[in-house]
Design a protein that fits this description.
Largest sheet: 8 strands, mixed
Number of domains: 4
Structural class: alpha+beta
Strand content: 15-25%
CATH class of the largest domain: Mainly Beta
Radius of gyration: 25 Å
Helix content: 25-40%
Distance between the termini: 35 Å
Strand order of the largest sheet: 5-4-8-2-1-11-14-13
Number of strands: 22
CATH architecture of the largest domain: Sandwich
Shape: globular
Bound molecules: ligand BES, zinc ion
CATH topology of the largest domain: Immunoglobulin-like
Length: 616
């Protein structure tokens, strides 16, 4: 009978989480750098949420090596179900007898990761910053936790965690550090213990280990990174982190997790940031020596409310995580730099939204706010759309009811769903309920076309943004557009006083020209404005795009060079696309050369982009 009446609302898990939920996980794992494996056992406490309906517990796994399984201390039978792409292999654990509603069982699984693990990257000493020690780190979102340990790999289930991790090198995890002691079993290794008392979904499970040291960046925050990078990371983050926390605490409510720390990873980290609780994981490309990429920190910090406390029930409702987070990130920026800056950031976001919609096509499923992911890999649906359509949806609601009223709704929403997961329908009901006693707002919200926002593909209506911070750069871009006719002579002073993000907007405008720059013009721009040598990767990446589009072969070398230095997909994927248009053999050669440098997730995505494996 199982799963027939109530199919789970997350289509991207093989687990039968409508029968059982994991309430606590103890992960006892040894980090074996020499074998590039995690080895140990994981203990789940499962609560039965039916009255003995299912005698099987089915968990998600992907390329795992499973050993013995004990249920309540007794060896149990288990089997791996046939593999189902792209989700992996269900692990079916058989129980001796039915379990009554709300009763629990303890399931202890011996497990080893394999070389096909998609969540972990293992770096040799030569691949690290100071080249002294190996390094490893995880990236579990969206459905990669199942390649580390058997779990209910769905954002619709939350568990508390104990991490007992043995390693020869310092360890970081998504829990609060509670102890370090010499390992009895392995000389020279230490047991690092962490506890996460706030229930979290599997995708927030995180580990990193390597030559890592820490420095304080605020009253409740440290930055952790390689010893040779510590000072510059500290400088980049110490001015803003606590300011950001204070700002968002006023908008939502106090920070719930104790510490807010940042781990700056090696350059192959595939994302800008990942909101692992207690420790945000961040790309080193935010360390630009100008404190101009800290909006990534405002973003990951915001996830401490949207995503980590209040979670999308499945990846089909990903906008609830990322749209809300983008909204809160921009509220933080407004609190600190003023309202025009929020609009400025939203204008940058709108451009990303337009690009994504054009990339997929205006009718594509993945351009909807709520997407259908049955049978799909959530990584393939990843784009700016949930972020920016989600932001615009919330911004639209804010404008509809008025900012003062919406401000009161924010803490209400985050209180109602604190510790829970929800879908877009529950979101709608909560909005309508909250404003039901307000006749004016109610009328507007009942007339509001929710269905259209949720399900129509393509662009939403464009709001009237305050353009005060972009006007200057639009004007400058205009001069470059008419370069040949107008006799415009670029000078270094053209960009004096501009923020890096304004330069980003300028370069994006240049990329939009119907007639691309000539190779000479592109080179001139790079030299006069110093873009070619910029330390800010957001700037150098876009400048390289301009050069590639202009057919300026002198940017090929700096492009392949950057592709060998950074594994953040935001840069890597567009640069390969741009490079392949100009010179496909060089793009392929570069990928072959650097593919081992990239994280498995990034490697797989670039492979899809370059060789068309599956349609992403
Ligand atoms: N949670 C995301 C990263 C992510 C999304 C990883 C989906 C895996 C699957 C993170 O919060 C994020 O959005 N990072 C952005 C930062 C930016 C929007 C400031 C990134 O990586 O660029
Ligand atoms: Zn995010």
């Amino acid at each position: 009978m199982e799963s027939i009446i109530n199919p789970p609302r997350d289509p991207n898990t093989l687990s039968n989480y409508n029968n059982w939920v994991s309430t606590h996980v103890t992960a006892n794992l040894d980090i074996l750098f020499d074998q590039q494996k995690l080895v140990g056992n994981v203990i789940h406490k499962f609560k039965s949420i039916t009255n003995g309906e299912s005698q099987d517990i089915i968990l998600d796994t992907n390329h795992l090596d499973i050993g013995e399984i004990k249920v309540n201390g007794k060896q149990s039978e288990w089997e791996l179900l046939p593999r189902l792409e792209p989700y992996g292999t269900g692990l079916k654990i058989k129980l001796d007898s039915p379990v009554a509603l709300n009763e629990t069982v303890e399931v202890d699984i011996s497990v080893k990761t394999t070389e096909k693990c998609t969540a972990l990257q293992w770096l040799t000493p030569a691949q690290t910053s100071n080249k002294k020690h190996p390094y490893m780190f995880s990236q579990c979102q969206a459905i990669h936790a199942r390649s580390i340990f058997p779990c209910q790999d769905t954002p619709d289930v939350k568990s508390t965690f104990d991490f007992n991790i043995t390693s020869p090198l310092p360890v970081i995890s998504s829990g609060l550090h509670v102890g370090k002691s010499a390992s009895a079993a392995r000389p020279g290794h230490y047991l690092y213990q962490f506890h996460q008392k706030v229930p979290i979904p599997s995708y927030l499970f995180a580990l990193a280990s390597g030559d890592i040291v820490e420095a304080k960046i605020g009253p409740r925050s440290v930055v952790a990174t390689s010893p040779d990078k510590l000072e510059e990371c500290k400088w980049e983050l110490e001015a803003d982190t606590e300011k950001f926390i204070n700002a968002i605490e006023k908008i939502v409510y106090p920070y719930a997790w104790g510490e807010y720390n940042v781990l700056v990873l090696p350059p192959s980290f595939p994302y800008g940031g990942m909101e692992n609780p207690i420790f945000t994981f961040a790309t080193p490309s935010i360390i630009s020596k100008d404190r101009e990429n800290v909006d990534v920190i405002a973003h990951e910090l915001s996830h401490s409310w949207s995503g980590n406390l209040v979670t999308n029930a499945s990846w089909e409702h990903f906008w609830l995580n990322e749209g809300w987070t983008t909204y809160l990130e921009r509220r933080i920026l407004a609190a600190i730099h003023g309202e025009p800056y929020r609009h400025f950031s939203a204008i940058i976001g709108w451009k990303a939204l337009v690009d994504s919609v054009e990339h997929y096509g205006h009718d594509h499923e993945f351009t909807k706010l709520v997407v259908d992911l049955k049978g799909k890999d959530p990584d393939d649906a990843f784009s700016s759309i949930p972020y920016e359509k989600g932001f615009n949806f919330l911004f639209h609601l804010e404008n509809l009811v008025g900012k003062d009223k919406f401000d009161k709704f924010i803490p209400h929403y985050f209180t109602t769903f604190k510790g829970k997961s929800l879908d877009s329908y529950e979101f709608k009901t909560t909005v309508l309920d909250f404003f039901s006693s307000d006749a004016e707002a109610s009328k507007l919200l009942n007339d509001f076309d929710w269905e259209k926002w949720f399900y129509s593909p393509g662009l939403p209506p464009k709001p009237d943004f305050d353009t005060s911070l972009v006007d200057v750069v639009y004007e400058l871009a205009g001069k470059w557009r008419t370069f040949s006719e107008s006799g415009f002579i670029p000078k270094e002073s053209d960009i004096k006083g501009l923020m890096a993000n304004q330069i980003v907007v300028f370069l994006e405008q240049v990329l939009l020209f119907e007639k691309p720059l000539t190779p000479d013009q592109s080179q001139l721009m790079g030299q006069v404005y110093g873009f070619a040598k910029s330390e800010n990767v957001e700037v150098s990446n876009l400048y390289l795009q301009v050069g590639l589009k202009a057919g300026d072969r002198s940017v090929i070398e700096p492009t392949t060079d950057l592709l060998g230095r950074i594994g953040r997909m935001k840069f890597v994927r567009p640069l390969y696309r741009g490079l392949q248009k100009l010179d496909r053999p060089i793009a392929i050669e570069t990928f072959e050369k650097y593919k081992d440098f990239y994280h498995p997730i990034c490697r797989a995505m670039v492979e899809k982009d370059l060789f068309g494996k599956k349609n992403a």
